[in-house]
Specification:
It is built from eight helices and seven strands; from the N terminus they run βαβαβαβαβαβαααβ. The chain has helices at about 20-30, 45-55, 70-85, 110-135, 155-175, 195-210, 210-220, 230-245, and strands at about 10-15, 35, 60-65, 90-95, 140-145, 180-190, 255. The chain has a single domain (about 10-190, about 230-264), classed as NAD(P)-binding Rossmann-like Domain (Rossmann fold, 3-Layer(aba) Sandwich), CATH 3.40.50. By secondary structure, it is an alpha/beta fold.
């Protein structure tokens, strides 16, 4: 797909001030979409994310803060995006957090936050954005899941449960909207070197009683036959394809991009 393929379309990307979300937002903006950023960070970090996306953009790039645990703030985020851009044509659900611990030691508040941000927030954004897509005659929804939407790993009870939930949500909403020219898909990345994964490396090292270097080589990349982290740009390009006209018949799919992890 070339430059300007998304010209005239408006996108909301949650969790887009760093990592995978920032990469996706930059790619969509570079290909002509108006993009609403959302995510965590200090004012300087958010300003830097805005500046980097705007440097690549062909159209407007804005930012709205929202606590993704709050249905009301999510509704305000979606309505704010529609107010700014006139519509939401593309919704990318990427916001996520992680905590690694044995189930008997897993803090209940961490479970609640992970389910809220990694799963429930996607339901709320879809619920609130779908009317705009129906009114404009179509749209694209892409949920950033994980290989953990399809397989499990120890010490990640909340994260694995949430990502399995994303797979089910994706399939259900895809069936509901199949005749409305709204596609709904999920991407299931393997391990990607992001700030979230950097924190997970330290947490996993503590949970397993091993070094951080051993976590990378013997836990994370052991699962990926390519023995390398998945690139953020690879995920962003797959999102770009799913948002384009050529992907009109792809819906309800969970698309792995995990270096062969699931082939084993």
């Amino acid at each position: 797909m070339g430059i300007h393929t998304l010209a005239g379309r408006s996108a909301l990307v949650t969790g887009s001030t760093s990592g995978i979300g920032l990469g996706i937002a930059t790619t969509l903006a570079a290909n002509g979409a108006r993009v609403m950023l959302n995510g965590l960070g200090s004012k300087d970090e958010i300003d830097a994310a805005l500046a980097s996306v705007r440097a690549a953009a062909k159209d407007r790039v804005e930012f709205i803060a929202a606590d993704m645990r709050s249905p009301q703030e999510i509704e305000d985020l979606v309505q704010g995006t529609v107010a700014a851009f006139g519509t939401i044509d593309i919704l990318i659900n990427n916001a996520g957090i992680q905590h690694v611990a044995p189930v008997q030691d897993f803090p209940p508040e961490k479970w609640d936050d992970i389910i809220a941000i990694n799963l429930s927030s996607s339901f709320h954004t879809i619920r609130c954005a779908t009317p705009s897509m129906l009114a404009s005659g179509g749209g694209r929804i892409v949920n950033i899941a994980s290989a953990h939407a399809l397989v499990a790993s120890p010490f990640k009870s909340a994260y694995v449960a949430a990502k399995h939930g994303i797979a089910g949500l994706t399939k259900t909403v895809a069936l509901e909207l199949a005749e409305k020219d709204i596609t709904v898909n999920a991407i299931a990345p393997g391990y990607v070197r992001t700030p979230l994964v950097d924190m997970q490396i330290a947490d996993t090292a503590r949970a397993r009683g091993i070094s951080e270097e051993a976590v990378i080589s013997d836990v994370m990349l052991k699962a990926q036959p390519t023995k390398r982290f998945v690139g953020i740009d690879e995920i962003a390009e797959l999102v770009l394809f799913l948002c384009g006209d050529s992907a009109a018949s792809i819906t309800g799919s969970i698309l792995p991009i995990e270096g062969g992890w699931l082939a084993q």
